[in-house]
Amino acid sequence: MQTKKSIFPFLLLVIVTILAFFFPSLPVGEETEVNGADVAWMLTSTALVLIMTPGLAFFYGGMVKKKNVISTMFQSFICMAVVAVVWVVFGFSLVFGESIGGIIGNPATYFMFEGVVGGPNWPGAPTIPFALFAMYQLKFAIITPALITGAFAERIRFKSYILFLILFFVFIYAPLAHATWHPEGLLAGMGVLDFAGGTVVHMSAGVTALASALYLKKGSDSSGSNPARVTYVILGTGLLWFGWFGFNAGSAFGANGLAASALATTSTASAAAALAWIFFDAARGKKPTAVGVCIGVVVGLVAITPAAGFVTVTHSLIIGVVASIISRLVVEWRTRSGVDDTLDVFPSHGVGGMVGMLLTGVFATHTINSVVTTDGLFFGQSGLFVAHLLGLLGAVIFTFVMAFILLKATDLVSKLRVSIEEEEQGLDVTQHGESL
Questions:
Q1: pLDDT confidence band for 280 (50 / 70 / 90)
Q2: Which residues contact 384 (CB under 8 A, 6 or more apart)?
Q3: What is the spatial distance between Cα 22 and Cα 316, in angstroms, rounded to a whole number?
Q4: Residues with Cβ < 8 Å from 435, sequence gap 6 or more?
Q5: pLDDT in tens, 112-159
Q6: Buried b / exposed e across 122-150, counting CB within 10 Å, b at 16+?
Q7: Which residues make Cβ contacts (< 8 Å) with residue 250, sequence separation at least 6?
Q8: How far apart are CA 320 and CA 113, in angstroms?
Q9: Most Cβ neighbours (<10 Å): which of 45, 135, 245, 267?
Q10: C-alpha–C-alpha distance, residues 268 and 264, integer Å
């Protein structure tokens, strides 16, 4: 099958390369004071978070049909290239640049990474180089659009996906990340706490996944699940679980007690959620499955992400169990509804992130992290929970509406869905000319 030439993406890359001659991004001054142990831990955490994206590729790739394994895995892998380039050019600025109304960062602040290497340490990470902070945050930006791919796996054109993931980063991820993690961000000003990305990463990806599934409608063969490689799913889960300790414990931005606490809550919530998934199934006469326990692990990891550095270890157990059961029920609702969210991204990441965000408002305590100025509902204070409830509603509405707009815009520029014939033949061959 002959492929139509696509010159525009290459020209864009050439332009970026030419810009690099004019913006050399030289160090802006003497290196600021850092802590060696914190730097070592954050270098490690950055690598750990990056390995999560290949882990996600195996996790998703094992669940789809054999004819779509390569295309599904590739959709995750390509994020590591596309988002990294966008991040250096203007993406980091959109998230952490000078705040524009608490909604988005000024793209000129760190354009082409000017002022990053050797720049003043970020206030929330005062003991590590600013460039390391920027690279750590990049890994979160990489995995977020990759998470969405499970919703439209097996039926989206690769070229259109590239355009959509860039639009998603610019118009959904960057505003939510800025609003939540920038000191002058809108959600931060409301008092919303998000330790490692429950709102920024998982809710944004999960809600966008739901919008994508509704927009693209059912695939030509969505009648049942026939995973190509359950062993890939197990391997992917292991890599995700391993990397998630950098995701959550790394968000302490130092080798300290808070990192240890976040590591402990992450381990506990994920384990509890895995057990809750298969035990809840067993209580209803269903067989325990390897895929089920893997999904349970991921749901627990998702749910504890916003709360990891704010709650106690025992409360993390509650978060894992509650999120797992709710997500399991939403999976069943999604199946009955006919919404073709191929790999249940919304029930796992969207719902898991929502549950985690609300329960952060219930269980967060200043005794774990002094950043918590108002304790959660469990401790008799309601302010934090109300802020999280309002923040959740705002984030969901914003993401859902914007996702539909971006899907429509992408579809107008480059048709999103493959043809029925291409779908039946498989995306590995029709999109990439490869096969297992």
A1: very high
A2: 191, 193, 360, 361, 364, 372, 374, 375, 376, 377
A3: 49
A4: 67, 70, 426, 428, 429
A5: 999 999 999 999 999 999 999 999 999 999 999 999 999 998 999 999
A6: beebbbbbbbbbbbbbbbbbbbbbbbbbb
A7: 41, 42, 44, 45, 46, 48, 49, 136, 196, 259
A8: 38
A9: 45
A10: 6
The whole-angstrom separation of Cα 111 and Cα 264 is: 38
CB 153 within 8 A of CB 64: yes
> Is 248 in contact with 266 (CB distance < 8 Å)?
yes
Alpha carbons within 13 A on the beta-carbon side of 350: 29
Residue whose token pair is 């269903």: 286
The residue type found at 378 is F
CA pseudo-torsion sign 196, 164, 346, 52: negative
> Dihedral of the CA atoms 198, 200, 206, 208 (nearest 10)?
170
* Interval 31-48: pLDDT, tens: 678 999 999 999 999 999
Q: Is 112 left (phi over 0), alpha (psi -120 to 50) or beta?
A: left
The 10 Å Cβ neighbour count of residue 5 is 7
Which structure tokens are listed for 240?
Answer: 């995700």
Q: How far is it, in rounded angstroms, from Cα 130 to Cα 124? A: 10
Does the pTM of the predicted model rise above 0.90?
yes
